[in-house]
Every structure is written in C-alpha cells, then in structure tokens.
C-alpha cells in the first residue's frame, strides 16, 4: 500500500492486488526528463516496482533520440542497474525489469548467459503498462526459465542482440525472416526488430491483447510474435535513500563504578537462509511442450538441454 500526500492536501491511495495495480484518484507524478512515458504510465510502473517517495527513474536511452542500433543502446546504458526496458508498439506499452542490467561478455564477438535462479541470482519479470490488461500488470517469469543472454557488441545470441527468458520470451535485434535459432548468426541492424511471446496459461486474468490461440501464446507486440517497435526506452531505477546518511551522534556512556565488569555476549541478526533451487518435472515438461508448439523438435531439444530459443 502506498500513501502519498501532495502539497499537504491531496492524498492518493494505490492498492496492489495480486499482480495488478489499481490506480485510484489523480496522483501528481512527474515523469523523468526525456522519457516517453506518460504520467499515468509512469505512475503504473512505479506501482509495479513497489515505488514510494524515494524511488526515482532516469531515462538513459531512447531509440527516437539516441539511435536505433545495439551499439547506440550499449553506449547509453553501459553497466547501469537495475534497469527497466520499455517497448512501445501502437497502443501497447510493455517490457521487462532486470535487476542486474545487461551484463556484456568480455569477448566482443561472444555472449554472456546468466541464470537468475541458480548461478547469478537476480530479479527478472515482464510487465504491461497499457493495451493488454485493464490495469498495469506484472508477469512473473517461471524460475526454471528466469535467464538472460546478452551478445557482445559484435556478437549475437541465436539471432538476437539479447534474449530475456525462453518460454516467456522477449528478444530484440531479431531478423524476423530467419527468426530465432542457434544457427542464426546475424542480427537486425535496427534493435527495434523484436520477438515476444508468453504462454496464456502464465498470465493473470483479464488479458485483452493479441494472441495465437493455436499455440496458446499471448503476443504483446501483436502480429505473429515478431514486430518492429515504435520506440524502445531504457530507464534506470534509483532510490534516493541510498544516499549516505549524516553521521550519528551518541551521548557518552556513563562511567561504571563497579570494580569488575562482566562482558556481555554479543549477538548478530539471523543468518539468511541458504539459496535453494528446485527442479519441477511438470514445469520442465511444459517448457518442452511449449518449444514444440513454437518451433518444432529442434527448439524443444534446445529448451530441454538448457539452451535458448
């Protein structure tokens, strides 16, 4: 629950239920300079992020302003984290949150793969701000496919510049004619050439966007799953509470006149539980079945062996 007072007069209440943000009343929010987001879209994104008065977003990159190549994006975004990637296509506004940002490989022609569930814990999820649901909506990614693959400046990952997820997928820099696959060694010159799909069974209720019923996929960007975005934007999430706090002052401790002093044992807070992982056979079977529906036996084999589409 987020309560914000504006100028000491207006109080706005935003209630998060499940995965959807309900916006009640009018909230005076100011989107960051240079962003493509409207005030309502920005407010919805803050709600999904769990934002409050200390949450700030900075627009780092826009295709319409800074260029449409993968290099243009990398020059502006660098190693910033956490980031929000926003895609605008017609009436649809959607994207992904990546807590670790886009981690480039050391090899400019190579790729970097990181598994957010096991090898490199990170927060990763899809969202929709407009066009798909009645309200801004967060879509969690299944742990078994919560992974990111990023190409070097001169590399590619299965025919894309980067791929977020597998069964729940978003990829950009894709050559639509050849699609995604391990044999595809070229990427699109324009990063706005993207591919996206999410199984309908993994979406919250209320989806009204485009879909392919025979495959069972929601297509956030419309078309066949491949589309050219009108705009791609990357924003960095900042918390002003991360600024250094002024040093604390304490009163001098009283002098103890007792001849002997018994040391008091010190304690520490609870130790965090170790990271655990799970392997759900039913979930893995669903992933393989989805691969068969999307691109045939080869793709299914890739998914089952841990590869990316």
Automatic annotation (TrEMBL):
Keywords, comma-separated and alphabetical: Signal
Domain TLDc span(s) in chain numbering: 40-103
Protein name: TLDc domain-containing protein
Pfam families per record: TLD
Domain of life: Eukaryota
InterPro entries (alphabetical): TLDc_dom
Low complexity compositional bias, start-end: 258-269
Region feature (Disordered): 242-269
Keyword Secreted: no
Organism, scientific name: Vitrella brassicaformis (strain CCMP3155)
Signal peptide coordinates: 1-18
